[in-house]
């Protein structure tokens, strides 16, 4: 079928244009298959990248999700913004990875560019403790109201109960 | 004080099938604002996945949602296979497609019946669920159980399909096709159905893209997105199918998208049965590996993805799950505004919600306007008669 | 409205059909052939490999020593009926069935079978090692078996004034690493599982070194009057068995016998010869004097 051909050429052109426009903020580009690309970006530069994608494809791009990974051995959180572009023959998933230090996790919000990011930022705040400045209502979403303050469950230093093996 | 009234709907309410709480602010009969509150079935699955190897974790991933369980196991399997770097045999890919589409048919027929019941149209509800039994029987023959299938494993599938079952599917599925076409005609013409769903809950295409809706909710507002089309997985890069898009943007369009998808799914299964390759059905993955995997599938409700990061041990470092109803919540809150209170169950039913429950009580003090939540142990202690 | 809805025709046809309800408790249910019901265990074919316990995702199968065989016991209240044990069993010792009417008044934990048959490989005169025997009249207390055991089934303990290994059969996976590494060949495997397994026997035979007249160093003593507090012994100790602590205004060494490997570095480095080796354990752990 005609739609099943791999559109590598068009996808590559979009990524090259992105890299040439915001040259100094892109740290690394890695392709994983013909339709997914991981782009490592400089700290606190996420708003420019998301604005570029939304301005270039206003009617055919959307935010998929925002997640966080806790790298406790490197002392930082890695926040990932996933965007998807579906425009005629360009079918590309862009994953922006950004590092944030663990002792000072404050990032600016993107809810003025993408209103649908409200719930993702709330979930990351209650699970990891990352504060999004400028968010209209940063409160707990999934956890109950009786949960203690300051305990962020998905961080690596918070352990759920496990039995340890006995060693002499 | 303004004339706005706060109405709390849920967690237990006869119009809702899943536990969630919506606080509607209404003026007369019209809804002005909505505030949702979820988390009634939060089970901590993301943290629990970090303590399980992949042989156990696939059964945990299956129980995230009972109705779309094939989608969750398929997404988990794709993510771990990409991280481990193994390739699934072609026969297993086609069998996965057959189980996936059977799951989609049963989920869509369930929703159409439930939506008809919400409107009070019980006859249609009973008729659709009687025809759904054909699909449940075929799923039981293929996987061993009606709902929780335990069919997809990391590296392949668990059972093979026999020639008698192929013959049985080819006999029953065309009959189901004719029945669903009848229902489509009923939904287009019936005055009860159209009066309650046409022009109810409208959302435009640009607003839907900004809010991030997925699945049939977005396809009803002329957004052409389908994971099987732009990021094919399993055998979808070899099977031809159409992406269903409706332009009206209201609840009627969202229901019609699901009816048409059911017809497409029957065609996909018949095509896959005709072109089933021979070969093995399972490949064993290694136990500890290093890599990153991103598995996306099109569940009946939208896009599900599982993202795993493995760093050399036999347990993952981080596992992230995103379900489609979570992405549709901002869109549905926008859809409520400006419509009557009696339209609220229909609008909520049109996005096919799938959350779950526990018990909690929400008290509004009318005199002071103060709101607080009371946990269960407090009520029991204070009001339980000894 | 001019058009009659097509539902009316459907309703009219359904008046003359029989109801679609299946009266379950009064009629037999209609189940397919491949339905996933309760698994049944056949111990006559079990080769005691342990694969079913490994693949079960909810820990519903546990291997227990029964009548000398390591056979699977099944807990139905934890089973999720996924049939992984059936797909993976190499000798087809688990049979599928279609039973699902399983409710009861009491919850039975870990059901076994009434009798334990002879293992299928033993019928053909092939025997599997099942228990590890430690001969204490040959043990020279080198502690290598406890270091190399991957599941910590062998641990060192102090008995009769000697530091000897004890064996826990529940955790042992019979990898035979301890058998290979023992320098005096004191450890061997047997094919019969004893009736009453115990971790260490009540009385130990005398140590082989003492029989020949060799001395086995078992503790280190510090002469606190001669110690100057130079901390050299704690710095050269490779396992941190010596730690300096301030007692009464002086820095003195504190010794942990569990970490000491008797390398002799502290003995060599002490400038005032305050460290010496003793052939017996510290005072509280010594064996009682005979007669």
Structure overview:
The complex is a heterotrimer of chains A (168), B (386) and C (291). Chain A is of the alpha/beta class. Chain A has a domain at 2-105: NADH:ubiquinone oxidoreductase Nqo5 subunit (Beta Polymerase, domain 2), CATH 3.30.460.80. Chain A has 3 helices and 7 strands. In chain A, the strands form 2 sheets. A 5-stranded mixed beta sheet of chain A has the order 1-2-5-4-3. The radius of gyration of chain A is 19 Å and the shape is globular. Chain B has 386 residues and is of the alpha+beta class. Chain B has 2 domains: 5-41 and 328-383, no CATH class; 45-327, Cytochrome-c3 Hydrogenase, chain B. Chain B has 14 helices and 10 strands. Chain B has helices spanning 45-48, 54-62, 69-84, 90-118, 122-143, 163-189, 191-197, 205-211, 216-219, 227-230, 251-274, 324-336, 344-350, 376-383, and strands at residues 5-9, 21-27, 30-37, 152-153, 156-157, 290-299, 302-311, 318-322, 361-365, 370-374. In chain B, the strands form 4 sheets. Chain B has a 3-stranded antiparallel beta sheet with strand order 1-2-3. In chain B, strands 6-7-8 form a 3-stranded antiparallel beta sheet. Chain B has a two-stranded antiparallel ribbon with strand order 4-5. The longest helix of chain B is centred in the N-terminal third of the chain and has 29 residues, at 90-118. Chain B is globular and about 65 Å long. The two termini of chain B are 42 Å apart. With 291 residues, chain C is an alpha+beta fold. Chain C folds into 3 domains: 32-124, 2-Layer Sandwich (Alpha-Beta Plaits), CATH 3.30.70.3270; 131-212, 2-Layer Sandwich (Alpha-Beta Plaits), CATH 3.30.70.20; 219-285, Alpha-Beta Plaits. Chain C contains 8 helices and 12 strands. In chain C, a hairpin with a 2-residue loop joins strand 10 and strand 11 (250-255). The longest helix of chain C is centred in the first third of the chain and has 9 residues, at 7-15. Chain C is elongated and about 110 Å long. The model of chain C has no long low-confidence stretch (mean pLDDT 84). The chains are: A alpha/beta (168), B alpha+beta (386), C alpha+beta (291).
């Amino acid at each position: 079928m005609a739609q099943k051909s791999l559109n590598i050429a068009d996808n590559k052109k979009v990524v090259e244009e992105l890299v040439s426009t915001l040259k100094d903020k892109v740290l690394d580009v890695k392709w994983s298959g013909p339709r997914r690309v991981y782009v490592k970006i400089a700290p606190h530069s996420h708003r420019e990248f998301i604005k570029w994608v939304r301005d270039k494809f206003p009617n055919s791009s959307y935010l998929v999700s925002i997640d966080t990974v806790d790298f406790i051995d490197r002392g930082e959180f890695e926040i990932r913004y996933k965007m998807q572009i579906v425009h005629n023959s360009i079918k590309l998933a862009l994953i922006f990875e950004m590092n944030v230090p663990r002792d000072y996790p404050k990032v600016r919000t993107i809810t003025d560019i993408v209103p649908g990011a409200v719930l993702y930022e709330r979930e990351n705040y209650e699970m990891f403790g990352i504060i999004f400045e400028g968010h209209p209502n940063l409160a707990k979403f999934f956890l109950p109201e009786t949960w203690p303050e300051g305990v962020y469950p998905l961080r690596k230093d918070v352990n759920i109960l496990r039995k340890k093996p006995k060693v002499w | 004080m303004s004339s706005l009234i706060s109405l709390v709907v849920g967690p237990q309410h006869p119009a809702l099938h899943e536990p969630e709480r919506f606080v509607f602010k209404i003026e007369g009969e019209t809804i002005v604002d909505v505030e949702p509150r979820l988390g009634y079935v939060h089970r901590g699955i993301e943290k629990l996945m970090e303590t399980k190897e992949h042989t156990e974790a696939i059964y945990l991933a299956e129980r995230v949602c009972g109705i779309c369980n094939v989608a969750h196991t398929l997404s988990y399997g794709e993510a771990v296979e990409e991280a481990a770097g193994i390739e699934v045999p072609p026969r297993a890919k086609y069998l996965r497609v057959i189980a996936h589409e059977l799951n989609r048919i049963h989920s869509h027929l369930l929703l159409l019946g439930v939506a008809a019941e919400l409107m009070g149209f019980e006859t249609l509800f009973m008729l659709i669920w009687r025809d759904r039994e054909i699909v449940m029987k075929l799923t039981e023959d293929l996987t061993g159980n009606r709902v929780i299938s335990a069919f997809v494993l990391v590296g392949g599938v668990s059972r093979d399909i026999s020639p008698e079952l192929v013959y049985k599917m080819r006999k029953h599925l065309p009959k189901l096709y004719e029945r669903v076409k009848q229902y489509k005609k009923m939904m287009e013409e019936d005055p009860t159905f159209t009066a309650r769903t046409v022009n109810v809950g409208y959302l435009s295409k640009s607003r839907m893209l900004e809010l991030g809706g997925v699945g049939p909710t977005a396809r009803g507002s002329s957004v052409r997105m389908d994971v099987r089309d732009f990021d094919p997985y399993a055998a979808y890069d070899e099977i031809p199918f159409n992406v269903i898009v409706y332009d009206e943007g209201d609840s009627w369009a969202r229901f019609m998208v699901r009816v048409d998808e059911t017809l497409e799914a029957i065609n996909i299964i018949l095509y896959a049965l005709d072109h089933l390759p021979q070969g093995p059905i399972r490949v064993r993955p290694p136990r500890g590996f290093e890599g990153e995997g991103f598995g996306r599938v099109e569940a009946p409700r939208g896009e599900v993805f599982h993202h795993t990061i493995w760093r050399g041990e036999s347990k993952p470092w981080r596992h992230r799950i995103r379900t489609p109803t979570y992405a549709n919540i901002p869109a549905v809150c926008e859809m409520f505004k400006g419509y009557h209170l009696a339209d609220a169950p229909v609008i909520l039913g049109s996005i096919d919600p799938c959350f779950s429950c526990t018990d909690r009580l929400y008290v509004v003090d009318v005199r002071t306007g103060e709101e607080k939540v009371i946990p269960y142990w407090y009520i029991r202690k204070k009001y339980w008669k000894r | 409205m001019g058009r009659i809805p097509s539902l009316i025709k459907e309703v009219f046809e359904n008046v003359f059909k029989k109801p679609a309800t299946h009266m379950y408790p009064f009629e037999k249910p209609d189940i397919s052939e491949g339905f996933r019901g309760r698994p049944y265990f056949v111990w006559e074919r079990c080769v005691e490999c342990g694969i079913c316990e490994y693949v079960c995702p909810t820990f519903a199968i546990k291997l227990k020593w029964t009548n000398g065989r390591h056979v699977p016991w099944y807990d139905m209240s934890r089973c999720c009926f996924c049939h992984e044990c059936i797909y993976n069993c190499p000798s087809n010792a688990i049979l599928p069935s279609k039973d699902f009417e399983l409710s009861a008044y009491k919850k039975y934990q870990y059901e076994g079978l009434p009798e334990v048959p002879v293992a299928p490989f033993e019928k053909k005169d092939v025997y599997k090692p099942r228990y590890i025997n430690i001969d204490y009249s040959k043990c020279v207390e080198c502690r290598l078996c406890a270091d190399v055991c991957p599941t910590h089934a062998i641990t060192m303990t102090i008995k009769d004034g000697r530091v000897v290994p004890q064996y826990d059969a529940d955790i042992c996976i019979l990898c035979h690493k301890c058998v290979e590494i023992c320098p005096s060949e004191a450890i061997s495997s047997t094919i019969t599982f004893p009736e009453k397994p115990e971790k260490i026997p009540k009385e130990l035979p005398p140590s082989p070194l003492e029989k020949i007249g060799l001395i086995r160093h078992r503790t280190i003593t510090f002469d606190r009057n001669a110690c100057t507090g130079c901390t050299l012994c704690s710095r050269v100790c490779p396992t941190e068995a010596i730690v300096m602590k301030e007692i009464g205004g002086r820095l003195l060494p504190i010794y942990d016998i569990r970490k000491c490997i008797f390398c002799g570095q502290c003995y060599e480095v002490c400038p005032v010869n305050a460290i010496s080796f003793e052939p017996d354990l510290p005072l509280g752990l010594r064996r009682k004097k005979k007669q």
